[in-house]
Amino acid sequence: xxxxxxxxxxxxxxxxxxxxxxxxxxxxxxxxxxxxxxxxxxxxxxxxxxxxxxxxxxxxxxxxxxxxxxxxxxxxxxxxxxxxxxxxxxxxxxxxxxxxxxxxxxxxxxxxxxxxxxxxxxxxxxxxxxxxxxxxxxxxxxxxxxxxxxxxxxxxxxxxxxxxxxxxxxxxxxxxxxxxxxxxxxxxxxxxxxxxxxxxxxxxxxxxxxxxxxxxxxxxxxxxxxxxxxxxxxxxxxxxxxxxxxxxxxxxxxxxxxxxxxxxxxxxxxxxxxxxxxxxxxxxxxxxxxxxxxxxxxxxxxxxxxxxxxxxxxxxxxxxxxxxxxxxxxxxxxxxxxxxxxxxxxxxxxxxxxxxxxxxxxxxxxxxxxxxxxxxxxxxxxxxxxxxxxxxxxxxxxxx
Length: 400
Prior knowledge:
The chain has helices at 9-17, 41-49, 89-94, 100-110, 132-140, 161-170, 279-289, 307-322, 357-386, and strands at 27-35, 67-73, 76-82, 114-120, 146-151, 173-174, 177-182, 193-195, 216-218, 221-223, 239-246, 265-270, 291-292, 332-340, 346-354, 390-398. It is α/β, with parallel strands linked by helices.
């Protein structure tokens, strides 16, 4: 079970600044997770950590700065670098984003041993190509091994489009090999459709096997929707088969102007981070990739964030969800009270400062309906982080 986060900033600082405990043969892997805004980076990070410490919202730019999560398993430590969505200066100006929103993903790449590129396959507007910002980032650091992670596959009714997506996003090359994929179809009167949820199957660390150049994974997820209602053909048993041919082995800086995909991914994973589907498979793979090296953090550390930062992020997540689009991005949070109650509970009072009177009216009108719900949901999330009772009160005021 992952450790809780300390409720005291002093205790959290002591863990962060203290000398990490080290097993006999420590291993470590630093992982940068990059992708377009709202691809599910923080959701995946939380699932890997086993506890929610990063904010998650349907609105873009929920994550405002890089933060580290720590997974400690036996002699291995994974450092997860959760980053803001890669965006360009024009969009950053539109959303009034800090300069750090542009630089943090690049800074995380400098410290990474492995990069996960997350793509939201449910977004039919963006899923067929990697964003130029992602491609620039990969091209700038071609020496860092990269893995493609297709997220939200549970939202696809027609899972067979994943084949086309894989080809486009990898330019048909994975781990230096050209891939040919095909499906084997069988007629069946059943209406169920099975489709692949992953291309690579990672072995547990204790059962490491030589890397195979022939990847074949039988389908694991059922979908009640048919591929074509006008056809009697059903994929009752389909195998994703990849045939390897010699391709380029090394990647260097590239001109990304006309590129849609990245031909240097080492592996591909397909998962549904929100529900935790296939996240354990990815986690086992990451543990396998760890190299001998001293741990960065004490085994009792779950995140580099302070308790107050976690609290701010979780409250922000809630009002991003419930308040009108133009309001939340201008809100400033001020913690008025943070102390331990007589029964050991954590007492928190926070002011939400809005910049304009018009926002104040809108904010209060909506907060009248949602204030209790926001406080209740945020308090529940904080209890799961700190593993103690939390009493949270929110107040809305005009920013002076």
